[in-house]
Amino acid sequence: MSKISATRRLSPQELDAFGAELDALHTRTMAQVGKVDADYIRRVVRWVRYCAVLGRGLLFVGAIGGAFVPWLLWPACIAGVLFLALAKILENMEVGHNVMHGQYDWMHDPELDSKKYEWDIVATGDNWRHSHNFRHHTYTNVRGMDDDIGYGLLRIFPEQRWRPFYLLQPVIAVVFALYFQWGVAIQELKLGRFFAGKMPKGKLARDFAPVGRKMGRQLLKDYLIFPLLAGPFFLPVLLGNLVANGIRNVWTYVVIFCGHFTADVETFPKDSIRNESRGHWYMRQLRGSSNIGGGKVMNLLTGNLSHQIEHHFFPDVPAHRYAALSVEVREICKRYGQPYNTGSLPRQFAEVSWRILRHAFPSRPRRGAPARELQTA
Amino acid sequence: MYKCIHGCADGCTFAIMSTVKPIKPARRSRLRRLASPFVAPPVFDFWAQRLHPTWSWERPLARVVARAPAADNAVTLTLKPNRHWRGAAPGQHVNLTADIDGVRITRSYSLDAPVAADGRITVTVKGVEDGRMSRHLLAAARRGDVFDIGPAFGDLVLPKTVDGAWLFLAAGSGVTPLMALVRQLAGQGMPAPVTLIYWARTRAELCFVDELRMLAAQHPSFDVRFVLTREAAITADEAGGRIDRALLDTLVPDLDLRQTYACGPGGFVATATGLLEGRVPLLRSEAFTPPPRPQTDDSGMVEVRLARSGRALQLARGVPLLEALEAEGLKPKSGCRMGICNTCACGKSAGATRDLRTGTAQPEATSALKLCISSAVSDLVLDL
User: Fold this and answer.
1) A105 neighbourhood in chain B, CB within 8 Å
2) Least CB–CB distance from A35: residue in B101, B342, B368
């Protein structure tokens, strides 16, 4: 069922050439970045603002209006939830994630500043900048270095050591999806190390302080202040906010898991990145990522993580350019005989789900299959 | 000694060791303090600006309310700042930030008049060749445009009581802060003898000519001389030639008694300082930096000032800044060391750098300079 056919082994010279072509593509693209990109991101920010107000407004209409005109309750609340979820998804994925990568730093806009941006999610921007921008993007799918491999909770790859705990992971994965923002929020706290007795209490308390503040702020906003604004009709607003956050959680979980945990994605041992060349780094990003097919709507709703490969190649290029870049990226990969992992959302997510089910049970890397390590001739 | 603190590529940027205290930000009202934990300023500003273009939670903004040509290649803009801007003394300058094709560019401009009673301010901008901001202000800025406006700074300001005789030396757009002082003194009925000597290449480049002549006619204690370097003098209040001792002695017989302020390009100010230092009772000057020449040679050393730790280092050009700083024993935060993770990005408030991956120069100040893939092109100020 592998989508990926023969993979050519590249000589170090070929790897260098592969890297140089992608570097050149990066340079060419960055030279074009300008007004179009600024207009684009500001347009998305406007949509985020309008969707959020529309969503929250409709929830009030449903909650308060619904108390007097009963047929109003459900349609207004459902529409409100969807618009609020859309606002949060766009803000988290197309604005927050991409801004924090520094894709728009060249605009010198303090509201789109990678170092200061704070997003509408319980995870703090500062923790994200470290665990995601640095560890995940530099050491993508390197076992023991990229904490995004299973998030310390799931066994996605046979190379991860099996423990009986993982038998529960089909259930845990569903819960994790529903509460994904909380998982992201505590990822950087390394609770596993704390419970294993490898981290003093004081450090955990210090690390938790800013996370706790952010959590409090988000909870206060969605579950106290906005519901209270509806007075005695607070319940539909509170529940609506809960569902909207939940929809955002599940969607971001699906997109992120489809980006790195599909069937043919590989993980790498630590020693594969010793003295890593630029070409080898690109190769590892390619083999560790997978795209989601679809059109413009899919690109927008995933914050262009539908082009996970292009994102991992060029995390500082404004993400709305990935779709156009993918034509040339594919062509380069094809010329070097390298797999380009893409598929529809149902297909990619089915592969992810299968991995979660399969590796809940003991498993071993397939023998005779194409080597799971990144190799060069 | 005279160094631009912004690293501007445009004119109209001044900086010297400031003796005037910066203006403190306003104390917030109680209501605002109580509300602030629940307000996300970007969201507040977004909706406030649907109602009025300069309403904001705390960001000082100014709207262009009028524009008028000031001379050949110069324009006077009238701005109305919002309530978050804290005002300026005549002779001071402010940073204005405009959005030009999606990129926000910041430059300093002197106010050319005291702040009006209704809060309006005026700046006169001279076009600088290849100056992104001044070209934009001259050609594209319209009524209704909104700029970010910074706090006022600079110390070409007059003492509270103006005694003795004064001499103002201006060259080119260096006339703007001195014009603000002349207007301030005119408003007080010219309480002391003041002479303004104003250099320009040609007559057509002179700003404020009619007003200055009118003030000279009104106030016997005010005298103005226009000095042209590329045209012959015609009228009685005109002269010719660059600044030198003979010219100054001719134009200002009581030079030794004059408290002197000078403002203009670096070369002009350096000459004026050399001629007058020790000779006049008081000398203050401001110079604006010439646009940095495009640097193609990546060899040699530059001075890198670290604003937070107060250190100054000599670092090599052409080397990634992260490596160069580490070689000096510093340990800036860093991650991937290849330009993708943004961990080492730090603020650069002045100077030009080069992106070593793409080879493009980055002359503007930024809040996020990736040290691992950037090298110094000119002297720098980093937020480290």
Assistant:
1) 345, 366-368
2) B101
CATH 3.40.50.1820 is the classification of domain B30-149: no
Residue A124 sits in which domain range?
Answer: 12-358
Task: For residues B130-144, give the mean pLDDT.
Answer: 92
Task: In whole angstroms, give the CA distance from residue A180 to residue A190.
Answer: 16
Best mutation target among B104, B336, B340 (most A Cβ atoms within 10 Å) is B340
Contact B178, B91 (CB under 8 A): yes
A107: nearest CA partner in chain B: B103
Say how far apart CA A8 and CA A268 lie, in whole Å: 18
- Among 3.40.50.80, 3.30.1390.10, 3.40.50.1980, 3.40.50.1000, name the CATH number for the domain at B165-288: 3.40.50.80
Nearest beta carbon to residue B342 from set A36, A53, A114: A114
Domain annotation covers residue A376: no
Q: 3-class SS at B348?
A: strand
Alpha carbon of A281: minimum distance to chain B alpha carbons (Å): 10
Contact state of A49 with B46 under an 8 Å Cβ cutoff: yes
What are the tens digits of pLDDT across the range B53-103?
Answer: 999 999 999 999 999 999 999 999 999 999 999 999 999 999 999 999 999
Task: Tell me phi and psi for residue B310, to 5 degrees.
Answer: 70, 20
Give the DSSP letter string of A316-331: TS-GGGHHHHHHHHHH
Which chain A residues touch B373 with a CB distance below 8 Å?
A: none
- Average pLDDT of chain A is 93
Q: Residue B103 and residue A107: Cβ atoms within 8 Å?
A: yes
Closest by Cβ to A316, choosing from B97, B104, B340? B340
A31–B101 C-beta distance less than 8 A = no
> Please, are residues B174 and B265 in contact by the beta-carbon 8 Å criterion?
yes
Q: Closest by alpha carbon to A92, among A44, A146, A33, A130? A: A44
Q: How far apart are CA A142 and CA B340, in angstroms?
A: 16
Cβ contact, residue pair B103, A116, below 8 Å: no
Residues 6+ apart with CB under 8 A from B378: B7, B292, B295, B302, B351, B352
Q: Judge whether B140 and B156 are in contact, CB under 8 Å.
A: no
φ, ψ dihedrals at B213, nearest 5°: -65, -40
Tokens matching residue B317? 């050009």
The nearest alpha carbon in chain B to A46 belongs to B46
In a domain, A292, yes or no: yes
Rounded to an integer, the average pLDDT of B285-309 is 78
Q: Are residues B112 and B179 in contact, defined by beta-carbon separation less than 8 angstroms?
A: yes
CB of A225 within 8 Å of a chain B CB? The answer is yes
SS3 of residue B226 by DSSP:
strand
Strands B93-100 vs B103-110: parallel, antiparallel or unpaired: antiparallel
User: Is B253:B226 a contact under the CB 8 Å cutoff?
Assistant: no
ipTM computed for the complex: 0.88
pLDDT-derived band at A42, boundaries 50, 70, 90 = very high
Chain A: give the shortest CA distance to residue B272, in Å. Answer: 37
Q: Tell which residue, A199, A173, A178, has the closest CA to residue A188.
A: A199
- State which CATH number among 3.30.830.10, 3.30.870.10, 3.10.20.30, 3.20.20.70 fits the domain covering B301-382: 3.10.20.30
Which DSSP helix (H) or strand (E) runs through B338? Answer: none
pTM confidence score: 0.89
Q: Is the pLDDT of residue A375 over 70?
A: no
Please tell me the distance from the alpha carbon of residue B21 to that of residue B310, in angstroms, as a whole number: 19
Tokens of A27: 């340079």
Looking only at the bridges linking them, the beta strands covering B222-228 and B238-240 are parallel
List, in sequence order, every residue forming a beta bridge with B313; answer none if it has no partner: B304
How far is B45 from B61, CA to CA, in rounded Å? 11
Indicate the SS3 state at residue B38.
helix
| Contact check, Cβ <8 Å, B341/A134 | yes
